[in-house]
Amino acid sequence: MSGAHTRTLAGLRDDIARIEANGPSGMLGRTALGHAEADAVLQGGLARGALHEVFAEGRHSAAAAGFIAGLAHRVSADRPLLWVRQDFAAVECGALSMSGWRELGLDPRRLVMVHAPDVESALRTTADALACDALGAVVMEIWGETRLLDLVASRRLTLAARASGVTALLLRVAAAPLSSTAETRWTVRPARSPPRPEWQAWGAPVLETQLVRNRHGLTGHWFMEWKCDECLFRDVSFHRGATHPQSVAAAPADRPDHPRVVALSRAG
Fold it and tell me: The whole model's pTM is what?
């Protein structure tokens, strides 16, 4: 490693050490997600001006995108959201639907999409975007494993987010977590919606979320329902063992309640 690289790495280590020494007091505040238990574990909500990671399996990419879109909306308030997307992610998952964006209660006019040909370009674009304090949040979506998202790259994003106050959200699909300076790390998968009356064709989006890393507190596992009208997350009591609220089929009246058991033997 050259002397210039050594000095740069040492400077980054000194900067991140100062940030970590300040602890939660160095943050720019928190935004509540709306889910009472999750907000309590997060000590009031998601930290703004920090780096957060969301991981999902490849077949759960849509659920992870919806979850991170909800997080971005909560921390962005009325400011624009910049979404940096690796081209390969679009090949694997398809394009983000603006109709679906509106169905989630989100405003497509506040979304700016940037397509990056590779991970290196996505990292460079994200770091530059985090320097713009006019943004509310920056999402970087990367598909698959890569060695470029190492601890040094994570520190750069953390420092950029802390300096501008813009929240960095890293969406990793079909990848395993590595060492990072992320404030929180989540894994997401879809869950079934609670039953609805027959006149309601669609249930609300429900996600099974697990907070697997929290730098300043506990972790947790929750089922979260995204409330499209209020644009916040709520608890889903149905997944905690509640009884099914809809009626079930009546017991048959033309045959016994319990079926008869008939023993069969093979002819010798």
Answer: 0.79
